[in-house]
Amino acid sequence: MASNTVRVLSIQSHVVSGYVGNKSACFPLQVLGFEVDTINSVQFSNHTGYSHFKGQVLNATELRDLISGLKLNGLDRYTHLLTGYIGSDSFLEVVQEVVKHLKEVNPKLIYVCDPVMGDEGKMYVPKSLLPIYREKIIPLADIVTPNQFEAELLSERKISSKADVIEVMDWFHSKSVQTVVLSSTDLGSDTTLLGMASSVKGDKIRLEIDIPRFSATFTGTGDLFAALLLGWMYKTDNNLPESVENTVATMQKVLHRTLDHARSLASDKPITAVHKELRLIQSLDDIRNPVPIVKAVVL
After folding, report:
1. Prediction pTM value
2. Known catalytic residues?
């Protein structure tokens, strides 16, 4: 295998129809030039925002089997690991083993952890995952991309000001995380979400960025955000402002295109989950060549 090959192992959910989890993360990373291998923590017919969904959940033994197969064939050398939605304690415990193993194979491996646990004050994974993330997974991560609620859960600190965000980001740094990006906080305005980020890789830098709000909510956006950030942090040699600006630029284009399409499909009827599936394939050019519309402000 060529030494300059950039390979990502992405462990998160999968849907047959639509775009969340690996379906949301894989295509953008491929467009940005990465080889992407995927392990599906769950395989569902569609995301859980629909009225019905069916499918399977991968267990810890099955995850170990897949990693063993890669290892036996010498296919376990990756430059990046990305993890997203994981629904059980035992599976998350094995993810810890996977991270440690992959970092032994390649000590330069970058682990991007999106600690998918909940949003807007509600957890949608068992509470028992929280201490595993806090004590075992986060200390192994190089980059984390929690939303505000997840950052509060992990750090056990309430966020009600920018100073609180900085304290929370510093908590992650104290756990050996080099780069922390809060993809959104409630500290913005009626028209914007406030994103904040901090990195101690090289010169310490903190920044904030005002992200235009949308009138609708979408599924799969956090998965897309984490994948884009992974891609741009590598392509810009860890330039945090440029990476965040490019990530937000692509997100804005994808969501604008998705909302316009949803409105055209729904016509005068209510917009449903199927209408709001992310328009990723149609956004190929915006993934490959983002044009930043908002600038990050270095603090």
Report:
1. 0.95
2. 223
